[in-house]
Every structure is written in C-alpha cells, then in structure tokens.
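User: Could you walk me through two proteins back to back? I'd like the raw sequence and the structure tokens for each, with a short line separating them so I can tell where one ends and the next begins.

Assistant: Of course. Protein one, sequence then structure:
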Amino acid sequence: MSLDKAALKSKITAEMEAQGATASGDYSWVAKMAEAIANAVIDEIHANAEVPVTGGSSAGTYNVE
C-alpha cells in the first residue's frame, strides 16, 4: 500500500469536520491545514521509517517509500 497525500488530506479534513470545523468559506483554513499535516506526516514517514525483514533472502532493514 502506498502513501497518498491527497487521500490523507481528505481523511484529515473529514475528521476535522466531524469535530465541528467548517471546511468551506472564504476564511476557512481547514483544507490548507489538512494538506500541511498530510504532507508533513507522509514526508516524515518516507524520510525516517524503516521496515525490518528478519528472514529469507531479503533479510535486512529497508526504508519505506
């Protein structure tokens, strides 16, 4: 499963709306904030997450991409 910034943004926006935030209107920051959070989370995972494979011919530690 690949990480998708747009899909994560959509989920964050939906969660914020469920908590009472308004995603529409001239002064709403919900979409911009959701995009910033989604970008930061996925960039952090891509930069630092590692997956250990403990057996087989592919044994080793690999970065998440």
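----
Protein two, same layout:
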Amino acid sequence: MERSLGIDLGTNSIGLNLREDDIFSWYGVYTFKKGVGEGKSGEFSYAAERTKHRSSRRLYNARRYRKWETLKVLIENSFCPLSEENFSKWKHYKKGIDRIYPINDISFQQWIKLDFDNNGVPDYSSPYQLRRLLINDKLDLSVPENKFKIGRALYHFAQRRGFKSSRKSGANEKTAVYKGSNETKTIGRNEYENLIIEKGSLGAAFAFLEDNSIRVRNRYTLRSDYQNELQKILEFQQIENKDFKENVEKAIFFQRPLRSQKGLIGK
C-alpha cells in the first residue's frame, strides 16, 4: 500500500490529507490566528507594533536614566538642592514601595520652577532666559542660589540635548530645515543658525525668539549646539572643577551603543 501525506500551508490554516493508494483515508484542517492584525487601514504586523512600543519604552528609559545621572552629578557638586535621600527614593525601586518622586521636596520643586529666591514666583519665564543670562552675566559661585541657577540650566540640557545626525559628515546637519506647524511662525535651521552666531548660543537665540512672541517648541536642534553652549557656560562662569565638567558632560550627552546582533545569526 502506498501512502502519501499532503500539506497545504496557509496564512492562518494548515490543511492535511492522507492518501492510501487512490483513497483519501483521512483529511483535516487546523486553523490559527493570522500573524497580522486587522485595523481600519487594513492589515498590520504584530511584530512591527511590538517593535514600535519597545522602542518607545527604551527611549523613555534612556531619557529618565540620563536625567537621573545628570541630577546625581549636580547634587554631588551642590548645583541642585535635592537631597540625596529623596533622590535615592526616586531613582531606586524597592519592592512593594516603588519609586517616590520628590513632590514634597519644596526646594527641589522651586528649583524646577526657576524660583531661586523662594518667593513662589519664577525668576525667569523659561529656562532659555536663564541660559542667555549665563553666557552674559558672571555669577558669584560662592552664593548657593547662583550655583542652583547653573545647575538648573544644565538639567534643561539633559531634558533636551538636541539631535545627533546619523550622517557621517557633520556638514550635512547644517542643511536640515525644520518646517513646523502651520499655526506657529517658524524659522528654518539655516536661518536660526545665524541667530545662534549673533546671540552667542542656542539658548540665547531661543530666548530672543520668545522675546518676540515666537514659540520655540518642536524645533530641530543639533546636539553640537548644546555641546557648544555647555562649554561656553562652564568657561564663562569660570567653573574649573575638571571632574565635574567631564562628568556632567558625559551624563548629559551619553548615548548607549547599539547592542550586538550576532546572537540572532543562525547556525
């Protein structure tokens, strides 16, 4: 007796039949879910959806760890009023307790809100106004309030830090233009590059735009502009601590290297 098994592979089913000589002695079908989902716009890949959400989680975590590392350096060097105890509770997870954001740390909340004289009113309308001051007015660093101002500006760097071009040639970064929304008057990358040169830094350029009631949100900014402004602030304010300068720059601009994919290669 000659036997043969027939298999029909589909996107969400497998059909089988067993043939003995000229007779189909058995047949059946096994159905399962498709490897794609159904949406209003048609089918979509589950794998692509997982990848998108995983990328979002990693980006969020990278930003969070970067801000924590920056705060650690600032706290250790008295540029931030947050206590080490409250910082530790926020940064480190404990089973059954979770992380505790220092919402009750009044001095830290005032620091975040740019209220350095603790009168309940922000001293600057935005961090850009503070960043402009730091490249134009030399502060007395023996006054704790002034060190807190520098620390707040550096923390703002960690919150933003700009885009690093994936191109091999940095010159190509200069040709990028941000188009923005139709509701907001926007300035092309080349145009406010000249404004950066004129005003002295990216922060000062954006402070100038705010003075003229031009929104600065969602603009294409280069990481190199942040790095140049950071060095300018540290030099102008005569911060000589080499370890602090190296550690805070590393904390703000650290980028995790790409993970090795060699483990995905089959035998």
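The mean pLDDT is 86.

Let me know if you want the two compared in more detail.
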